[in-house]
Amino acid sequence: MKEILTEWRKFINEYEDVYDREQSLRNAIAKPDTTLDNLMNVVLKKVFNMYAFLYPDEAKDLKYFAPTKHSPGDGEMYVRPSMRKILDYTSIWFENHEVQEEDEDKAKALKTFVDWLERNVDEMIEINNTEDYENILQSKAHNILRRIAEDETGNMLVALGAQLDKF
């Protein structure tokens, strides 16, 4: 019984650490000195994590991410929570900050991208769940996400942001 309690405490402590880190990040995003570039970096990190699960390097890797009778699949387990965090972070930042004139294009591109991603995330997860790698390679949404996720500078997000309303 003592071993079970010890394991339970470890689990709770890990959960509290994750919760504390998440709250710290949310608070940091709300601070007045947090720039739009900082927000974009946080969003791009989450986007890269989503991309890693939605667009595996090889077809054989799809079976590890697909749902099974015991697991909802990585799309459900990792991609949706990342999407919720992206929505949360962007809404916190835009509620607490006024966009500077020189950042208007970036802000519009980021908002458009987040809206586009929210509209397309279900379709991307659905395509992944079919385990059809060729279908993923042909998916417009996957390819757009790949282009944005692979560019750590955020330039691709800004460049494609204005065009994402069309997709």
Give the helix proportion (percent range): over 70%
* Mean pLDDT rating: 80
**H-E string:** HHHHHHHH
- The total of beta strands comes to 0
Task: Name the overall outline.
Answer: flat
Radius of gyration: 18 Å
Range of strand content? under 5%
Number of domains: 2
Structural class: mainly alpha
Q: State the low-pLDDT regions, or none.
A: none
The major sheet is characterized as: none
From the N-terminal CA to the C-terminal CA, the straight-line distance is 56 Å
Number of helices: 8
Question: Can you walk through the features of this model?
Answer:
The protein has 167 residues and is an all-alpha fold. The chain has 2 domains: 30 residues; 132 residues. Helix content is 75%, strand content 0%. It is flat. The chain starts with a helix and ends in a 6-residue tail after the last helix. The mean pLDDT is 80.
Summary, kept brief:
By secondary structure, the protein is an all-alpha fold. It folds into 2 domains: 30 residues; 132 residues.
Task: Supply the key terms.
167 residues, mainly alpha, 8 helices, flat
Lay out the secondary structure.
Blueprint lengths: L1 H29 L5 H19 L7 H4 L8 H23 L7 H26 L3 H6 L1 H11 L4 H7 L6
Helix pairs in contact: 2-4, 2-7, 4-5, 5-8
